[in-house]
Design a protein that fits this description.
There is one protein chain. The longest helix has 6 residues, at 38-43. This protein is mainly beta. The protein contains two helices and ten strands, in the order H-E-E-E-E-E-E-H-E-E-E-E. It has one domain (38-150). Strands 1, 2, 3, 8 and 9 form a five-stranded antiparallel β-sheet that branches. A five-stranded antiparallel β-sheet has the order 4-5-6-7-10.
Length: 154
């Protein structure tokens, strides 16, 4: 049996994702339906369902992506806490995209949105504030492993 240890470092203050295909094995907005209007979104309750993840009881997150065959699909949410969750983007078991919403209003008057990908397929995260109806989208290009933070999301 061989023991392999790898260490990854991320400098303080940076939000970064990176791929490493060699660690253990040794080898190298298509959401389907049109978004609801802002007025309709403001009157809809926030709830986690088959395609939506509810964060902080008011922010609805949905993910659309394009699979490796070029077909549009939607992510399936997996709640973790009231602040965070993940999305499964593939037919293989596993979580591919993590999201988190923090109430940062005491610091800068805004809610903060974070995301981190464990996949390189193109995707779009659409977050809706179900109280105000405001929406924001975060697009991810194909072929990259990324993470992001928006400290003025809502």
């Amino acid at each position: 049996m061989t023991t392999v240890t790898r260490t990854w470092f991320n400098a303080p203050g940076r939000v970064v994702s990176r791929e490493d295909f060699h660690t253990f094995f040794g080898f190298g907005e298509p959401l389907g339906a049109a978004p609801p209007s802002r007025q309709a979104a403001a009157t809809q309750a926030c709830a986690t369902d088959l395609v939506s993840l509810c964060l902080l009881g008011r922010f609805r997150a949905r993910v659309g992506f394009t699979d490796f065959e070029g077909q549009p699909d939607v992510g399936h949410p997996v709640p973790v806490t009231s602040l965070s969750g993940a999305f499964d983007l593939h037919e293989l078991p596993g979580l591919d995209l993590y999201v988190k919403m923090i109430d940062g209003r005491a610091e800068n008057g805004h809610f903060w949105f974070f995301f981190g990908a464990l996949t390189n397929v193109p995707y779009t995260i659409r977050v809706t504030d179900t109280v105000t109806g405001q929406e924001k989208s975060y697009a991810h290009p194909p072929g990259e492993f990324t993470a992001g933070m928006d400290a003025e999301a809502f």
